[in-house]
Amino acid sequence: MEASELKAFTRNESGKGPARRFRKKGLIPAVFYGRDEETVHLSVNATDLQKILQKKRENVFIKLLIEGEKTMAKLSLIKELQVEPLSRRFYHADFYEVRMDHKLTLDVPLRFVGIPVGVQNGGELQHLKRDLKVSCLPSLLPDFIEIDVVGLEIGDSIKVQDIRVPEGIAVLDPGDVGVAMVAMVKVSVPQAETPTEGEAAAPAEGEEKPEEKE
């Protein structure tokens, strides 16, 4: 596993006023907490955090280099990241402590590999699930789980129980949950329009139009 370093600074002020001042300086109010840790109020540089998340959006390990009364380094994951709806700027971040001897429960992205036989025969690959909930030690957490879908025919599917994961990783999703399937593509055939009641059919070519009766 790789961890990106991020400088953080302890802050004693809280509330909306100080938070606005931090954001004007390009900083994000944040907190760090853990199982046996007291909550530490922090601020981190918004640009630095954005650069880290541009490389990887899922399950990013961040080594916080916290400067305050005493400097300390803490391995963490982003538990929650609040974003302003209109500007899309970071608003607040929660960092959760990661301990190498404690298992994590996280969602790992699924990556589907190959073109199913059923798709080549006119079917459509449908993704029923985009990630898998797993439990494992931080050092064993994969960036993604690869699923080979080449052998799927029309009507075939893959369920959670069919997925093979590396040793040391426990899958927590129910085994009977569908992950992907190849379905038959439904083609709608347009129906020919029939004249409505009261409408006269157009005369065929060469056919005389009947005289109207008085």
What does this structure look like?
There is one protein chain. With 214 residues, the chain is mainly beta. The protein folds into two domains: 3-97, Beta Barrel (Ribosomal Protein L25, Chain P); 104-184, Beta Complex (RNA Polymerase Alpha Subunit, Chain A, domain 2). 11% of the residues lie in helices and 40% in strands. It is built from three helices and 13 strands, in the order βαββαββββαββββββ. The chain has helices spanning 16-24, 46-55, 117-120; strands spanning 3-10, 27-33, 40-45, 61-67, 72-83, 90-97, 104-113, 123-127, 131-136, 145-148, 157-159, 170-171, 178-184. A hairpin with a 4-residue loop joins strand 4 and strand 5 (72-83). The radius of gyration is 29 Å and the shape is elongated.
CATH topology of the largest domain: Ribosomal Protein L25, Chain P
Q: Can you tell me the number of structural domains?
A: 2
Beginning-to-end CA distance, first to last residue: 93 Å
- Taken in chain order, the helices and strands follow as EHEEHEEEEHEEEEEE
Percent of residues in helices comes to 10-25%
- Average pLDDT, rounded to a whole number, is 87
Estimated radius of gyration:
29 Å
Main-sheet strand order equals 1-3-2-6-5-4
What's the assembly state of these chains? single chain
